[in-house]
Amino acid sequence: MNKGVAITGMGIISSIGNSVEENYISLIENKIGVTRIENISTVHANIIKVGEIKKTNDELVNELKLTEDNNFSRTAMIGTIAAKQAVENAGITSINEFRTGLISATSVGGMDMTEKHYYDYFTHPELVKYITCHDGGDVADKIAEELGLKGIVTTISTACSSAANAIMLGARLIKTGKLDRVIVGGTDGLAKFTINGFKTLMILSDDYNKPFDNNRKGLNLGEAAAYLVLESDEVVAKQNKKVLARVSGYGNANDAFHQTASSENGDGAYLAMKKAFEVSGLKPSQIDYINVHGTATPNNDLSEGRAIKRIYEDEKVPDFSSTKPFTGHTLAAAAAIEAVYSVLAIQNSVVYPNLNFETPMEEFDLKPQTSLKNKNIEHVLSNSFGFGGNCSTLIFSKCN
Amino acid sequence: MQLKKTYINGIGCISTQKTFDTVFLEEAVHNHDENVLKIVPPIYKDFISPAAARRMAKGVKNGIVASAIAMKDANIENVDAIITGTGLGCIEDSEKFLKNILDNNEEFLTPTSFIQSTHNTVGAQIALLQQCKGYNFTYVNGAVSFESALIDAKMQIEEDEAQSVLVGGVDENGDYTTALFKLSGRIKPDNQQPYNLLDSDTSGAVYGEGASFFVLENERKKTTYAEILDVTILNTLEENEVEAETLSFLKANNLEISDIDALVLGFDGNVDFENYYRNLGENSFANTPQLYYKHLSGEYDTASAFALWMAAKVLKTQEIPEIIKVNSVEKLAYKTILLYNQLNGKNHSFTLISK
C-alpha cells in the first residue's frame, strides 16, 4: 500500500463550530448548524435554511484585527481564520523555512462583496477598494499575505469539488518533491448569488436536508472554510512532527454528461473512486467509512449511490454518512471540511450519523449510518462532486 | 524513474488579433485608439452548431474553437486530461445573473446564466463535447491561472498520469466589469488616446480577451513546436528581486543568460509596474532579443497563454515578426525562450520552452 502524504495540521470554521474541537463536539452531539439566515438580507429568508457562521463581517474583521481600510470579502476572512488555525496546529512558526505553498479553493470568490456594492461603486469612492476582491485568486492572495507565505500560491475552482482538488494537487506537489509543505483547502461565504443560483435550479430544500432518504427534497446551502497542512516525510522526520493522518488516495474524473446534473449511473463518481483506489493501492473492502458527498438532491444521491454500488459490486458497502445535515452544503469548502471530519473520524474511531434519514431510497438497498458509531477506522473515503461533471474522491488513512 | 518530457504538439488561439487562418501575426495591428480590445471572432459555425452556439457564453465558444484548432493541429482526437486557467470565468454570465438578482429583487430568475458563470464551465463543456471523462481541473488565480494549469499538466505528463493533456487559458470581457476596472484603475481611463505601451506614462492597462489552448504530449512528433522545460509561479516579488529570481530559475534548469535566445515580457503599459520588466531587459538580458505582446492581445488574467502561443510560433517558424520586438537584438537561431509575466506586482510566472 502507498504510504500517502502526511497531514500535520487542520483548521476549520463552519456553522457547527469555530475550531476543530468545536466542530467535532457538534458532530458527536448532534448539534446542527442549519438555521434561518441572519447575515444576508434575502427575499428567500423565510423559505430557505442555511448553514451559516453566526458572526457578522464586523466581528470577523475584529477577530482578524484587520485595519479599517481592508478589502477582505467574507470568503477571504473565514478562509484566513481557518488557514491560520491549520498553520498553528501544525506547529509552524517560520512559514517560509521550507518550500511552502498554498492551494486554495473557492466557487465565487469575493462575490459576497460584489453583490453588496455592485451598483454603488460609481457613487461611493470608499467602496472601490472592493472591486479587486471579486477575483477568485484574491482569497488565496490574502491568506498568503496574512500567513507571510511567499511561494507557489494558486486557486482551484471546479464548483463543489474544488477543495478536494486543492487537496489532491497539494498531495501531488509533495509527492513529486516540488514542495516540502503545502496548505490546502477551501473557503466559501454564503452569497445571494449562490442562494439564488441553486434556487433557480430548484435543488434547495425548504426543510432540513435528508441525504439518501427516499423523500429528500434538496440541499441546504452553507458557508465554511477549512485548511489542512500537508508535509513531506523529510520535514516530518526532521521536525519530529505529529502526523494526524495521511492522504493515501485521490482521483478526479469527469462525468461528461451534463453541465449541472450527474449521470444516472454515476460514471464520473465511479471513475474518481476507482482512480483513488488505484493511487492508494487499497481495496474497496478496506474502507471503514465513506463520507459521501450526499447533498440530498434527488439527482446526486441517486447517482452517487449507484456509483458506490458499482464499486462494491457484490461486496458489503461500508458504513457511510453525509455530514451535510450538520453544516449544509458549503460548496467549494465542502471537501475541505469533510477532510477535517474524515481525519477526526480516524483519530476518534467514530462514524458520524447521517441525520434526518427516515426512508431508504427505492432504487437500491443503501442505508446510511444514522447514529454515532464507535469503531476502529483505518481508512476513510470522501467524495465530492461539482457542476461541470467534476467528480473527486479522496482517501484518508490512519498513520500507523 | 525517468520523468517523461512535455511537448507542445498543437496550438490554437482566438485573440484580439487574427490568430487563426493566418501564418504568424502578419495581419496584426497595434491599436492605439481603444482601451478595451475585442476578440476577432472565428467562424463559429465551422466548429459549433449554431443552435448550440446561441446558448454558449463567449468564453465557452472561444475555448471550444481554440481547443478544436489545437487538437487538429496536433492531429489527435482525444486527450487524457483537460486543464483550464481563467481569471474571471464567463464573467458576462456572472454579470447577467447578478444584475437579474439585483434588478428583480431575487425573482423571475432562470438558471442558464448561473450555470455558465461557474468558473469550470469552459473545461466542462470541452469535456462534454469530446466525451473526455479524464482529469478536469480549472485554476482561477489571477495572472497565474494559466501557468497553474500548465504546471499541473506538466506534472500529469511527467508522472505518467496522462499521455496527452489539453491545457488552455481563457477569459472574456464583460461590459460592467470593464467599467468597474476603469473605475478601479486596472484599465486605462477613456479618452486618453493614443494608448501606447512601451512608452506609456499612465497607470492601468489596455484590456483584452481571448482563448489559447495547447495539446501537450509526452512524445516528440512531426507537429511539435517546443518542449516545455519548466514552469514556476510565485505569489509575490519585489521589483529588486526579479532579476535574482530569474537567474535562479535558469540555474535550476542548468541554463545561463546566454542560453536564452529570446525573452518574452508581459509589458502592459502600466507605468506603475513596468520596472518589473524593464530592469530585466536593461540589465541581465540587455543583449537578448526581447519580445512583447500585450499591445496585441491586451492585458487579462490569462494573456500569458497568448504569449506561450507566440513563443511556440517563434520556435517553429524561427522568425520574429517586427511588431512584437522590444529591441533590435537578433539571433541566428531561436532555440530556447524564457517568458516572464506578472500583474500589478503579484502572481509572477516564469516559463521556459525549448525547440
TrEMBL record, chain A:
The cellular component terms of Gene Ontology attached to this UniProt record, alphabetical and capped at eight, are: cytosol
Q: What is this protein called?
A: 3-oxoacyl-[acyl-carrier-protein] synthase-1
**Family indicated by similarity:** Belongs to the thiolase-like superfamily. Beta-ketoacyl-ACP synthases family.
- Give the residue spans that cross the bilayer: none
- Any single biological process term in GO: fatty acid biosynthetic process
Q: Which Gene3D superfamilies match?
A: 3.40.47.10
Residue span(s) of domain Ketosynthase family 3 (KS3): 2-398
Q: Sorted alphabetically, which keywords does the UniProt record give? A: Transferase
Coiled-coil annotation reads none
Q: Name one Pfam family in it.
A: ketoacyl-synt
Q: Name one GO molecular function term.
A: 3-oxoacyl-[acyl-carrier-protein] synthase activity
InterPro entries attached to this UniProt entry: Beta-ketoacyl_synthase, Ketoacyl_synth_AS, Ketoacyl_synth_C, Ketoacyl_synth_N, PKS_Beta-ketoAc_synthase_dom, Thiolase-like
Automatic annotation (TrEMBL), chain B:
Does the UniProt entry include the keyword Transferase? yes
The GO cellular component terms are: cytosol
A GO molecular function term, named singly, is: 3-oxoacyl-[acyl-carrier-protein] synthase activity
Indicate yes or no for the key word Transferase: yes
> Per UniProt, which keywords does this protein have?
Transferase
Could you tell me which Pfam families the record lists for this protein?
A: ketoacyl-synt
Q: Which GO terms describe its biological process?
A: fatty acid biosynthetic process
| Ranges annotated as spanning the membrane | none
List residues of the Beta-ketoacyl synthase-like N-terminal domain: 48-220
**Domain of life where this protein originates:** Bacteria
Name of the featured protein:
3-oxoacyl-(Acyl-carrier-protein) synthase
Q: Which organism was this protein described from?
A: Flavobacterium pectinovorum
What lineage is this protein's organism placed in?
Bacteria, Pseudomonadati, Bacteroidota, Flavobacteriia, Flavobacteriales
